[in-house]
Amino acid sequence: MHQRTLIAKTFWLFSILAGAFLVMAAPGLAQGKAQDPLPSWNEGPVKQAIVSFVQKVTDKSGLAYVPPEDRIATFDQDGTTWVEHPLYTQAMFALDRVHELAPKHPEWKTEPPFKAILGNDREAVAKFTDADWGKIIGVTHSGMTIEAFRKIAQEWLARAKHPRFKRPYTELVYQPMLEVMQYLRTNGFKTYIVTGSGQEFVRVYGEKVYGVPPEQVVGSDLATKYAYQDGKPVLMRLPKVFFNDNYAGKAIGINLFIGKRPLAAFGNSTGDRQMLEWTQAGDGSRLMMMVLHDDGKREYAYGPAQGLPDTRVGTFTQALYEQAKKQGWVVISMENDWNKIFAWE
Amino acid sequence: MHQRTLIAKTFWLFSILAGAFLVMAAPGLAQGKAQDPLPSWNEGPVKQAIVSFVQKVTDKSGLAYVPPEDRIATFDQDGTTWVEHPLYTQAMFALDRVHELAPKHPEWKTEPPFKAILGNDREAVAKFTDADWGKIIGVTHSGMTIEAFRKIAQEWLARAKHPRFKRPYTELVYQPMLEVMQYLRTNGFKTYIVTGSGQEFVRVYGEKVYGVPPEQVVGSDLATKYAYQDGKPVLMRLPKVFFNDNYAGKAIGINLFIGKRPLAAFGNSTGDRQMLEWTQAGDGSRLMMMVLHDDGKREYAYGPAQGLPDTRVGTFTQALYEQAKKQGWVVISMENDWNKIFAWE
Question: How far, in Å, CA of B324 to CA of A342, rounded?
Fold first, then answer.
């Protein structure tokens, strides 16, 4: 009899607590959307693919369960988590740096590729080769300590504005992707940026913009040299590529820096193909997603997949589109799957 | 009156809870040592330096406070967290691999440096140059996928025994260092292994032995190549050094992989000098420690600092010893500061 009373009392207490919880949760339930971790995503198979995947790998009783320490998600940056048109943000930074440094380099007035930059010849800039960009990165990104470089990048990011959106580049981040990153972290994932852009550059704002700390930014990098300045050790940036984190480099970089295979990978261009292949080649449940820029009104439209304009920045070929479809990668249509692109919309 | 009663009741409830807590905590309090996070360290200035440093950087009201996300501690491995004599563990692994692979390489019988290894010529092995080791690492550590290499390393670690201690190498870990790592993690630090040994090799056992996951192992590495085997992507290990995480490479590797400067760094040889210098060059309170192997009875005695024998493995020069003293790095005497070296003692 005593035990029954205890159970009854416990049940009564539980009811009160549960009631209090429901009262507290009510505003969220009433609003509906407040409960949705992905409010900027339209309902449909693409959004469902994300939610189903997360439920599968976090369900302890399921066959696809993965312990938290192995929940790794990798995100390309340019074109996947923020705007990459008309030109990659770091390329814009490099071009601005050439203008800034020009007074000290009178020879640039007649020397390609600098001549085209200083003459604001957009057509010529659009046709720059990898060798041209190598020269530009060399003079704008090296010859200083890593701290000095971070300061230069930070100051530029604080004042530079995107030519079309007239906002700082760090505000041109895709809200749906921020939601996915947060949703994954809430579910025990470690989120990484795996970018062809410069590791030091992205680390300047990665924590603030994406919630991704420096040690979770994998990117391309110049070589550095250990030296002494006034008796103090410094790391000097050299005009020499140490690592190119693009194409096969993304799979190599993931293994090098993380040493674990991602469970989920997000990209948007041919430079991300190997990262997604590498992710998919693992056991169990994996999620591979590609952003298709098919929204010229709210953002940009380019491919050339699906008959979209063929541009040289962030190329998503038809062959890659077909590979994605064939291998079960989920293609995200910016136009159809995202009801909001930027937080400030 | 009602409020007073409520306070009285709450206080009464609190007393019961506090009492229960004290009863639960009592065995620990009674034993004394159970409360000490560093029981294998003898009391004295060296142990005190660790405790004071941790208290300083975690004290929110103090000037030296550092938020958890910036609490980075880096540990050299060979000679700092585990035994490196008579030869680095990974070198032992490489020598065993040469014996295993020999039947497929009849030419090794007459070809240096393999001839010396197959003939068990210890004197010749002790004199191997970097070029010799390059050849040995090339044939023993490359030509397979990263997964195949991990399996080979894992199997070797499971069966190999140290020539003097007759135990698996993974048991020859310094208990006092494990305690420091755990103590730092309990205080919000992220602990990294920063090793001249191979990153893939250490990642095989890093989590189990040190509690350090793969993404927190920074080490030397061979280049890898993205390829396809039966239509599946693989990363093949190439006979080419990609990164040498030793000397200046340790400071470079820390910046490359972590992107933050350590607050604390632990080493034991000339290969760790730049890591400690780089750590010390940061602002605020920092802890730099060097292990001196002065305990030939329980472990090994070598320097040549302080008149200890001069060996070629894990060199701690007198010049480095003097730099340590001059710059306020704490030198750990294995003989005097550690009451226990291995967990199984």
Answer: 53
Tell if the CB–CB gap between B252 and A224 is shorter than 8 Å.
yes
Identity of the amino acid at B65: Y
Place of tokens 């920074």: B218
Q: Each residue of B166-188: pLDDT tens digit?
A: 999 999 999 999 999 999 999 99
Give this complex's ipTM. 0.90
3-state secondary structure of A319: helix
Contact predicate B241/B223, CB 8 Å: yes
Cβ burial, residue A256 (10 Å; 0-12/13-18/19+): buried
From the CA of B146, how many Å to the nearest CA of chain A? 9
According to DSSP H, which parts of A32-88 are helical?
45-58
Interface of A with B (CB under 8 A): 69, 146, 190, 199-200, 203, 207, 213-215, 217, 221, 224-226, 232-233, 235, 242, 248, 251-252, 255-260, 274, 277-278, 281
CA distance A232 to A194: 32
Of A221, A242, A255, nearest to B224 by CB-CB distance is A255
DSSP label at B316?
A: B
Phi and psi, residue A73, nearest 5°: -125, 135
A226 contact residues in B (CB cutoff 8 A)? 248, 251-252, 274, 278
| C-alpha to C-alpha distance for A175 and B148, rounded to whole angstroms | 41
- Return d(Cα A116, Cα B155) in angstroms, integer: 59
3-state SS, one letter per residue, for A217-266: EEEEEEEEEEEEECCEEEEEEEEEEEECCCCHHHHHHHHHHCCCCCCEEE
Give the tokens for residue B200: 């893939």
Q: Give the number of other CB atoms < 10 A from CB of residue A226.
A: 18
Check A214 against B260: CB less than 8 A apart: yes
pLDDT tens, A165-197? 999 999 999 999 999 999 999 999 999 999 999
